[in-house]
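Entry for the shared binder. Reason: the reviewer on the internal report wants the predicted structure included alongside the sequence.
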Amino acid sequence: MSAAAWIELITSGLITGGIYALVALGLNLQYGLMRILNIAHGEFLMVGAFLTWWVQSSFGLSPLLMVPVSFALLMALGLAIHFLCFRRLTATSPNLDIFEARGLMVAFGLMFLVQNFVSWQWGGDLRGYDYLTEPVKLGQAQFAGNKLLVFGLALLFSGALIVLMRMTLLGKGVRALMQSPVGAQLVGIDTRRLHPLMFGIGLGLSGVAGCLLSMAYTISPSMGEPYTVTALIVITLGGFGSMGGALAGGLLLGVVEAIGMHYTNPSLKALLSYTVFIAVLLLRPEGLFTRKTRKA
């Protein structure tokens, strides 16, 4: 295989991995901070994709305009869902284990509710539109313009979240809560404000990911669930609670899938992902990009 073909193959994997990372960052934020395993996360990605498709096909507006709109709408929806569902679960659950179990059941309900609502509203057919499909040459390699744009924006939003977590007072409060919820509350960090805000930001990122996906791929009401599973694999690769690990894990998984499918069969994509997932769980359960903690 030529050098240009290798560049195209790896870049294709990185483009897919950028979306994986963006979805995983939102889910990692929710689980790492609040222990909410939101398995409906991918369904909100699907909502962002369908909203972008609907606006583009109905009004002819550029999907780029929907990137901030998708983030804002899905963030507002996330705030509402946290207020209506998870805030009450926090108040009524006697311990963290029961809260996680109840939260998982609520997320199951949300998954089917959102998926069926979109199917009822727009039908179950594949949808899509043409946007920046002209090829772009980079050296000897060639890529679709929309996929390069998707990759760039995915990295931009992922990087912005990581900078927010590492460089701001808000981010330091979130990381403190992830490391020691009791200790963080003792020094005055208000969970009643941070929890809904971070849950909303997590769903906002899923809406952005859906918006970006719609620019380059066909979409359907059933597209969300596979991305939730992939996000869980990425979080396992990067380490639960690690934002930088989620970004690195997403990019790595995208490249592994691209190379694996090239040398095997595209239908084996899920098999490749689950093989990596199980191997990491067995050999390095703390994640590939986190330091091992020493036992006392």
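Summary line for the report: Residues 11 and 133 are 16 Å apart (CA to CA).
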